[in-house]
From TrEMBL:
Protein name listed in UniProt: Glycerol operon regulatory protein
Species per Swiss-Prot/TrEMBL record: Streptomyces lasalocidi (Streptomyces lasaliensis)
PANTHER family assigned to the protein according to its UniProt record, in alphabetical order: HELIX-TURN-HELIX TRANSCRIPTIONAL REGULATOR, ICLR FAMILY, HTH-TYPE TRANSCRIPTIONAL REPRESSOR ALLR
Any one Gene Ontology BP term: glycerol metabolic process
GO terms of molecular function: DNA binding; DNA-binding transcription factor activity
Start and end residues of each IclR-ED domain: 62-245
Keywords recorded for this protein, A-Z: Activator, DNA-binding, Glycerol metabolism, Transcription, Transcription regulation
Length: 253
């Protein structure tokens, strides 16, 4: 039975490459055409494959519907939270998770630092979109025309001398962030607070959230915080892997 399931599932990535006929499926699986036909008929009955008028098979609508339903029911905050807690326990600094929704970038989770100096940020509160590291990441993931349209609509308050002053500067920063794959806010919102952020991506490679580590410079310098970037990126990659289903969750010992 496990071999039958394995063969049936092996058909799906083949058809993801494009429609295939019975002979091609049989050759890929290394089985007789009668075996391949039996598997295809079962998948067809469940809507996972569809037989075209030219007798070739392609992926069925039911498969896409299930994938869409599964994605809609995934809670990125629930998946990410244990990873954020572990990162906080390792470095001791404040950890945030943010998403881009309806023109705003919002914090949806936060794990506070272990030291007395706390950041004034709240879950559900929009971030300072022109300077925040998580906002730069999320906006950098937009297609270029959309990035430009967003940048030109924004106001550019000068929170500090390091704040982004105008749309052109913001677009240059977004291009840099898009290329390097991570972002910083080094005193752009508050002179005394530095932040480094990394992207959380879905199965399609698009960004679904951004996570960051922030700390006041009375606790660590900007260079010391930047030294945590590999750890931050590994954490973001782990969340991405679990969210997209690429990384199986290990059963507790």
């Amino acid at each position: 039975m496990s071999q039958t399931v394995d063969r049936a599932l092996s058909i799906l990535p083949l058809l993801a490459e494009g429609p295939a006929d019975l002979g091609q499926v049989a050759d890929r699986l290394g089985v007789h055409k009668s075996t391949a036909l039996r598997l295809l008929r079962t998948l067809h009955e469940h809507g996972f494959v569809y037989r075209q008028s030219d007798q070739r098979y392609r992926l069925g609508a039911r498969l896409f519907a299930l994938a869409q339903e599964a994605m809609e029911n995934l809670d990125i905050r629930e998946i990410a939270h244990p990873h954020l807690v572990r990162l906080n326990e390792t470095c001791g600094h404040t950890v945030h998770l943010a998403v881009h929704e309806e023109g705003e970038v919002l914090y949806i989770d936060k794990v506070d630092s272990r030291y007395p100096v706390r950041m004034y940020s709240r879950i559900g509160k929009p971030v300072a979109i022109t300077v925040a590291a998580v906002a730069k990441l999320l906006l950098a993931d937009l297609p270029e025309p959309e990035r430009r349209a967003v940048a030109e609509k924004l106001d550019y308050p000068l929170y500090t001398a390091r704040s982004t002053p105008h749309a052109d500067a913001f677009l240059r920063e977004l291009a840099k962030v898009r290329e390097q794959g991570w972002a910083t806010d080094l005193g752009g919102h508050e002179e005394s607070i530095n932040c480094v952020a990394a992207p959380v991506r879905g199965a399609d490679g698009r960004m679904v959230a951004a996570m960051s580590v922030s700390a006041p410079n009375v606790v660590v310098t900007a260079d010391e915080l930047l030294a945590l970037l590999p750890l931050v990126r590994r954490t973001a990659d782990a969340i991405s892997g679990e969210y997209s289903g690429r990384t199986p969750v290990k059963d507790p010992a």
